[in-house]
Amino acid sequence: MxxxxxxxxxxxxxxxxAGTAALTYAVAIEPRAFRLRRVTVPVLPAGAPPLRLLQISxxxxxxxxxxxxxxLRSLAGLRPDFVINTGDNLSDTEAVPEVLDSLGPxxxxxxxxxxxxxxxxxxxxxxxxxxLVEKAQGxxxxxxxxxxxxxxxxxxxxxxxxxxxxxWVELTNARGRLKLATGQxxxxxxxxxPHIKRDRYSQVAGGSDEGADLSLAVVHAPYxxxxxxFTADRYPLILAGHxxxxxxxxxxxxxxxxxxxxxxxxxxxxxxHRAGGRTSYLHVSAxxxxxxxxxxxxxxxxxxxxxxxxxxx
Length: 313
Fold this sequence. Notes:
It is a single chain. This protein is an alpha/beta fold. Helices cover 25% and strands 23% of the residues. It has helices spanning 2-29, 66-74, 96-103, 117-120, 129-137, 156-165, 224-232; strands at residues 35-44, 51-56, 82-85, 111-113, 169-170, 174-179, 185-190, 214-218, 237-240, 249-250, 254-255, 269-275, 278-284, 303-311. The strands form 3 sheets. It has a 6-stranded mixed β-sheet with strand order 1-14-2-3-4-5, with helices on one face. It has a 6-stranded mixed β-sheet with strand order 6-7-8-9-13-12. Strands 10-11 form a two-stranded antiparallel ribbon. The longest helix is centred in the N-terminal third of the chain and has 28 residues, at 2-29. The radius of gyration is 20 Å and the shape is globular.
């Protein structure tokens, strides 16, 4: 009997040990392994000096997350020319002061923002397997699911007031401009979160601003209808977040889900999008946080991105 069952028992023990180690890493280590990605995007006019754009996204702040707060404050040392916040700052109804404190040094730089669903509504526990089911059924957020009942409302107005008082430009279905210290001017067009059907493209349609040195499109969730509209309207670069890069990824394979209708090949990082006979660059941030009820990451570290914008060839 010992010879017959010895190998299976050892194999089972090995699998359990590996699973425990992976879970420990995903819960206790990777979610705190913050990193900065650097990307170069050729979107400026010929002869223009490079611009340094810092994108932060999906902070999902919970009160007491000191290491995350310290890391966010340290990003000001990069001295970006401007900052874009692509939403989902909150995962705690009491965390607005800590978000504003963490981003305080960055708010000394020109910036703009859009909100995501978790800025408006508090998180709820969801079985992670539901994301796979919804992907298979083509359902994502309010685009394919019934509205959530009894949702907790976050104090997003306080967050908005804090950003506005620092001079950051709100892009909730709106346009805005940033005047940079370099003398260059950036025109911005933003949408409210498509994941909960708050996007109103008709309010901002009409194409990029030819009078600026650069025009950018900003949205929280990279739904295809939004990417199509921005690309057809000739925006050279679209910035988004929301996906968490897949959050739980398979090493050497990648993400299984995106939590929207974009494909997994473009779940994070720089890619392109084509629509209306035109092509735009798309950058999707994997973000630096996670829902407080699923505070795990695997093979997808939390991040911010420094995009160096250079002249197009």
